[in-house]
Fold this protein.
Amino acid sequence: MDEAQLRSLTPSVLGILVRRGADFAAAEDAVQDALVEAVRVWPDERPRDPKGWLVTVAWRKFLDATRSDTARRRREDLVDEEPAPGPASAVDDTLQLYFLCAHPKLTPSSAVALTLRAVGGLTTRQIAQAYLVPEATMAQRISRAKRTVSETRFDEPGDVATVLRVLYLVFNEGYSGDVDLAAEAIRLTRQLAAAIDHLEVAGLLALMLIHHARRAARTAPDGSLVALAEQDRGRWDTTSIAEGIGILHAALARDRLGEFQAQAAIAALHADAQTAEETDWVQIVEWYDELVRLTDSPVVRLNRAVAVGEADGPRAGLAALAALDDSLPRHAAVAAYLHERDGDLKEAARLYVEAARKAPNLPERDHLTRQAARLNATT
Amino acid sequence: MAKYLLLKHYRGAPAAVNDVPMERWTPDEITAHMQYMRDFADRLEKTGEFVDGQALAPEGTFVRYDGEGRPPVTDGPFAETKDLIAGWMVIDVDTYDRALELAGELSAAPGAGGKPIHEWLEIRPFLGAKPTATE
């Protein structure tokens, strides 16, 4: 039994059921039942059309479940009399699920969980493990999300930007246990990119591919962080980088710039440099200017200050930083880095300690503490 | 088996013997310390005594219900002796003595100069262990 294949079929089967009028939660239950059936039956008797088989069985399960509700019997019988359509195009129906799972009524964490479940075909247990919460908690979160979207009509056009935000959230959750959420996000974004022609989908896919390509080099064997400049570039996945850059170039050529394309362009400039010293910081600053224009996000301005520090020297970087609110996440870390480059090691060490105190996770905190320790050891 | 919570404090515990803030250690000393903690947790996983462990951020807030729509917030109940938990580990061990032994070992993690920190760790038993017929 090929779990990956079953997982990739799940969203389109679910999409078809919902398209035929099944309530989302009931359709989801029916598809799960059909998957269980598939695991039982397929090893002995593999169907020639696995998707058609799943649709038929899931639809039957759905009808069985709804028919047992006697109050609704009449309506269900009417539905049952409709001729069953053949398998619809997978692409089209899956797309609906993307939009449904990224519904604005859902909180970001519910949207992510529902996407992983309905579009990604992950089990509740796998999603719970990835988020380090008990399975029962995740089951509740998902059923609440399903209830929230159960009355959503499918004829409203979805918002691609929201879908992309959800996929990017999935990507940034990283991975733990046996589910690699970053790889999962790439798989889902690939599906989406195949389904619709949208430059920002291409931009996000390129961004994810290039980031993901550096993953092996980003942590040392003991789990500590390795900064971009110190990474062993020989460990970057050049195939993935080349694919990302190819997708990005095709998108940029069409001249409708968006946030993800600009971010991917910055990632591509880093990936292009053979050594850290060869990084084209001047061009990176230009892309940050575009990003500031597109998003006006303080976090982008903060990152821009780092790039300015590399392109025009640490004093210029500190000047750019001075214009920003120092309560921004990682503000102290950036200030510490720029002061160190400017030769003020004492101030840099003090700021690294402050940044460590505010670090959002353990690897980052340890990394910043080490930076402070390194400077304190030299002064 | 009984569960115990091992608490590491940022502040509030008596001072450690080898009391040097981590940013004053050398990077190698930090690495050795991290490795010790990791090895400790790995070993307890193998013996089946590890339950869970998490590090906590140093910032905390106290909140109390104080009438509709206005929860009062303070940064701590005791202005002078503010205690902050840095992290915790839950272990599931046969005896209280075993919990003491493990906490002692964790407290011996190497610090500045490669010497044990001798920091104070707090041990708190979990409530709710069911009495069994043999006990």
